[in-house]
Design a protein that fits this description.
Oligomer: homodimer
Largest interface: A-B, 46 and 46 residues
Shape of chain A: globular
Structural class of chain A: alpha+beta
Number of domains of chain A: 2
Number of helices of chain A: 8
Distance between the termini of chain A: 47 Å
Radius of gyration of chain A: 19 Å
CATH superfamily of the largest domain in chain A: Jelly Rolls
Largest sheet of chain A: 5 strands, antiparallel
Strand content of chain A: 15-25%
Strand order of the largest sheet of chain A: 1-2-9-4-7
CATH topology of the largest domain in chain A: Jelly Rolls
DNA sequence: CGGAACATGTGACCTAAGTCAATTTACAGG
DNA sequence: CCTGTAAATTGACTTAGGTCACATGTTCCG
């Protein structure tokens, strides 16, 4: 199921870590240059093609992952096929903390994906020697927890309009090139719907409505831009009444 | 706002830690007996009356808490007053990980509450000397993250009936005395509604419906029991079609 | 013991968002 | 440059759950 291509493993990855473009922005930054060989020694670099699974729900949770480039969606299914996307991961994100014995979610590549894979046990062993990295992980978990609470508020109490506005604001914030410009959404309307607890049709209609009132512009379905940041903000936060 | 009564502070709390009924079940179990004075030295024991705030949203996040007895609800508000309960904490639970610079949520006592309060900075310093406790915190954060993902699936994709059934199952699991017996719900219908993304009326009607079809029994509003565990399970998981 | 002040339960009705059904793009592969 | 397939949009209609209104407990002080 989870068809992936393992590129390479082991200590000879040291140069890859040293030149890793996301190391400074990820939990790996807690490892100093001279200790990088230890880190590289337990890492496996993998490529995942678009649409392929990196993690499949129900599998034994043997690994942690760190995303070096690309993006993926994480989702859970109900027995009758209802799907909910619990989040997206991107360059620099750490993946797998929220797992027990087995993974409760699946992870599917949205773009060509490059990840570093660590066996849980080996990474835990490594953490004992590098408390700074454990601290970074704890902080990453705290941030994810705070984001999860935001999302619970969104799913529990926001309207469709507020959800879509919140989503676009957050996407723009995650996309450096989006500041004042249009950018490419990585996900389909269906993904957005499953992330926001809506249907495809409602997402589509809401996007159109936001476009018609001048808050956003949509050139193609995946190429959007924010035209009125203040309005988007106040819709997202529920400050606007109309 | 957050009116609380500080009972006592400092190392002379050592006997309190040693006899703490939740120590073995909490992150504090990572501290060995001989090191307990260090732990007790940075703790403040506090009592919070029902309805009083332990944490107020927007305040500077100076503290972590560990619940020794009682329960509290954690909630966030939208500007127009819509409320969402992001979770409940009970004996043994650690509280405050999901905070940035400021608390994003408020915490209100549901029952008379006893907590140990730690300054964030002091606890972080302590963690550097007790990696086992840091590991426990990381595990606690992982568990919370997994629970948050369950709740996102519930809020995004489950029906009212499935939400209420999931809630009752989870409450029963958190209440040792609930196995095969009735137990007292700690929260009002309003709290349940704000936790499940519903209204009071829908929670009330759904509880009545579950009672009428023999899945649960309700003696008084807060005293409930599970009459058909298998049915409740299959409703909660969305396995049942009718 | 009495009676506010809440909390809960239940009807009657409403609406935001879901469902169903066509079109209309958009893009990947030949 | 087609053309087949999947994604998106849009309209018409339905519905689960929300809103409003009111009756009925409960609780807990004084």
């Amino acid at each position: 199921m989870a068809i992936v291509a393992t590129v390479s493993t082991g200590t000879f990855l040291t140069p890859l870590c040293m030149s890793c473009s996301v190391r400074s922005a990820s939990v790996c930054s807690a490892i100093k240059d001279q200790d990088v060989p230890r880190l590289a020694g337990i890492a496996t670099v993998m490529d995942v093609a678009v649409g392929k699974l990196l993690i499949e729900a129900g599998e034994q949770a043997l690994y942690f992952f760190n995303v070096s480039s690309g993006a993926a969606k994480l989702y859970r299914l109900l027995p009758d096929g209802r799907r909910h996307i619990i989040g997206f991961v991107r360059s620099g994100d750490f993946l797998g903390l929220a797992a027990g014995e087995d993974y409760a979610f699946s992870a599917e590549a949205l773009t060509p994906l490059k990840v570093c894979r660590f066996t849980r046990k080996k990474l835990y062993d490594l953490l004992s020697d590098f408390p700074a990295m454990e601290r970074r992980l704890l902080q990453a978990a705290s941030n994810e927890l705070a984001a999860a609470q935001d999302q619970m508020l969104l799913l529990g109490r926001k309207t469709a309009r507020e959800r879509v506005a919140s989503f676009l604001r957050s996407e723009a914030a995650h996309t450096p090139s989006a500041q004042g410009h249009s950018w490419a959404l990585l996900m389909t309307r269906g993904d957005m719907a499953d992330y926001l607890g809506l249907t495809i049709e409602t997402v589509s209609r809401t996007m159109t409505a936001l476009r018609k009132c001048g808050v956003i512009a949509i050139s193609t379905a995946s190429d959007v831009s924010i035209e009125d940041t203040a309005a988007l903000e106040s819709i997202a936060d529920g400050t606007l009444l109309n």
